[in-house]
Amino acid sequence: MLKLATGALLETVANSSHRATPPASSAVLLRPHSRQLGSDSSNIDRPTTANDEGATSRSSESSREGCKSADSAPKEPPVPPGEEECCGTGCSNCVWLLYAEELVDYYRDNGARAAQEVAKIPDPNVRQFVKTELDHMLKSEK
Questions:
Q1: Per the record, which residues fall in region Disordered (predicted)?
Q2: How much is the pTM?
Q3: Cα–Cα–Cα angle for 97, 98, 104, nearest 5°?
């Protein structure tokens, strides 16, 4: 009897969906160059393949290159990302790295004004991270 009840329980759990149904627009694009954030529940039936990931990274690289290949600097200074945009794990596509790149592109004075903008970042850990990356970017340009 216990075996039958356990089997029925396992069958019920196996047949039930454990994920909530995503809203109509579950993906959010926070900044023009940021990754698309959203629920991964749309990928339940379709596993991700290496080709899918390559296509995604190529499209984001090409959009980023398109912005860099513009003849003039952006007209407005870049806006620092909000707290909700950074996951805090130090990922390779960090929004703070993009912010540092945008600062270098906007302020073309070898980083003096970009460093002033970085000094305004309230979190000391993020500020040091961006400052280090900014220094690295400026050294690699020379």
A1: 12-86
A2: 0.48
A3: 90
Structure tokens at 103: 């600062």
As beta bridge partners, residue 37 has: 28
Is residue 113 in a domain? yes
Token representation of residue 18:
């454990």
CB 35 within 8 A of CB 92: no
CA dist., res. 56 & res. 36, Å (int): 10
Q: Do the domain assignments include residue 130?
A: yes
Q: What are phi and psi of 28, to 5 degrees?
A: -130, 135
Residue 109 is part of which domain span? 94-142
CA geometry: angle 49, 53, 137, nearest 5 deg? 155
Which amino acid would we find at residue 62? S
Tokens of 49: 């393949």
Mutual angle of helices 124-141 and 95-106, in 10-degree steps:
50
